[in-house]
Design goal:
Layout: E1 2-3, E2 9-10, H1 29-40, E3 47-49, E4 55-57, E5 59-65, E6 70-79, E7 82-91, H2 96-109, H3 127-135, H4 142-153, E8 159-162, E9 172-176, E10 181-186, H5 204-227, E11 231-236, H6 241-256, H7 259-269
Parallel strand pairs: 10-11
Antiparallel strand pairs: 1-2, 3-4, 5-6, 6-7, 8-9, 9-10
Helix pairs in contact: 1-2, 4-6, 6-7
C-alpha cells in the first residue's frame, strides 16, 4: 500500500480493502442512513436542491473500479420515485467512515449539497437543533419501532400509543393490558436526557420550561399509574433496543411469571 503526497492511502497494486468502501453486512436501511448522518454531521446537512426549489435527502455511494483500483464516490437521491446520482470524486482513506466524510466534504465544496435553511419563525437555535427536535416529535419514532419489532419477534403482543387507564389522559407507547405494564420510550431532547440533552441557545427559557414541564408530567404519570397497580417502564431513545426489550420482558415476567409464560399469556391476552 502506497502513501500519497497528502499522507492518505492509495492502492496501486491491489484493490482497496473492503473496509474502505463496503458497508457492513446486514446493515438495515435505518443504520445506513444513520451512518450517512454521522459522516456529514447530521441529516440537515444532506439537502440536495432540485429544480423548482424542491429538496431531497442525499446519500453517498461508492464504486470500486478494478482497472484503476480506485474508489469513486457518487451523490445519490430520489426524484419522482427514481434514483438519481452525480459523480463527486475519488476518495482514498483507509476506512469507509473516513471516505464518507471525505466524499461529503467534496460534495459540499462543489455545491451539490446544502444545509437545511432554518425557518424564520423557528424557535430552534440552529438547523442541527431543529433536526433533533423534529426527530423526537410524534409517534412511531425509530426507537419505538425497533423496540416493538424485537418484542413482537419474541411472541409478545401489545397495544400501541394507547391509554393504560381510559379515564387518565396519559398515553403510553406500548401497553400490556393483562400484565398492567406501560412502556414509554422517552426522546432525549423533549424529556431532558442527562446524557444527551443540550439546552437550546435561542429562546432558551421557553424550551427549558417546556422540557421541565415534560419531566414533571412524566413523574406524575408514573405516580398515577403505580397508584392504580401498574408497572411503568421508561427507556431512553438512545438505549440499545435489545437492552430496552429486556427491561420490558423482565417487567412482564415479574407480573406474569416466567419469561416463557409471559410471552404466551401476553400474546393471548392483548
Amino acid at each position: 500500500m502506497k502513501q500519497t503526497a497528502k499522507g492518505q492511502h492509495g492502492w496501486s497494486d491491489q484493490l482497496p480493502p473492503e473496509r474502505a468502501w463496503k458497508p457492513r453486512a446486514g446493515m438495515t436501511q435505518a443504520a445506513r442512513s444513520a451512518e450517512q448522518d454521522r459522516a456529514v454531521g447530521g441529516r440537515h446537512r444532506r439537502v440536495v436542491v432540485l429544480d423548482g426549489g424542491q429538496r431531497a435527502t442525499g446519500s453517498i455511494a461508492f464504486r470500486v473500479y478494478r482497472r484503476t483500483r480506485r474508489i469513486r464516490a457518487y451523490l445519490r437521491w430520489s426524484q419522482q420515485g427514481r434514483t438519481q446520482e452525480r459523480y463527486v470524486g475519488e476518495v482514498n482513506a483507509a476506512t469507509r467512515a473516513a471516505n464518507l466524510a471525505q466524499a461529503w466534504a467534496m460534495a459540499r465544496e462543489a455545491g451539490l449539497v446544502k444545509d437545511e435553511v432554518l425557518p424564520a419563525d423557528s424557535k430552534a437555535s440552529s438547523t442541527s437543533v431543529r433536526a433533533v427536535m423534529a426527530a423526537n416529535r410524534g409517534r412511531d419514532t425509530k426507537p419505538e419501532r425497533l423496540l416493538r419489532s424485537i418484542l413482537h419477534s419474541r411472541g409478545l403482543r401489545y397495544r400501541v400509543n394507547a391509554r393504560p387507564l381510559p379515564d387518565l389522559r396519559r398515553t403510553a407507547d406500548l401497553v400490556f393490558t393483562k400484565a398492567q405494564v406501560a412502556v414509554f420510550v422517552d426522546g432525549c431532547y423533549w424529556h431532558g436526557c442527562p446524557d444527551h440533552y443540550r439546552p437550546a441557545m435561542r429562546h432558551s427559557r421557553f424550551w427549558q420550561d417546556k422540557i421541565q414541564g415534560n419531566q414533571v408530567r412524566d413523574a406524575d404519570t408514573n405516580r398515577r399509574l403505580r397508584e392504580r397497580g401498574w408497572t411503568v417502564v421508561r427507556v431512553w431513545e438512545h438505549e440499545d433496543p435489545r437492552r430496552a426489550a429486556e427491561k420490558v420482558v423482565a417487567a412482564l415476567a415479574q407480573r406474569l411469571g416466567s419469561p416463557a409464560a409471559t410471552a404466551g399469556e401476553s400474546a393471548a391476552s392483548q
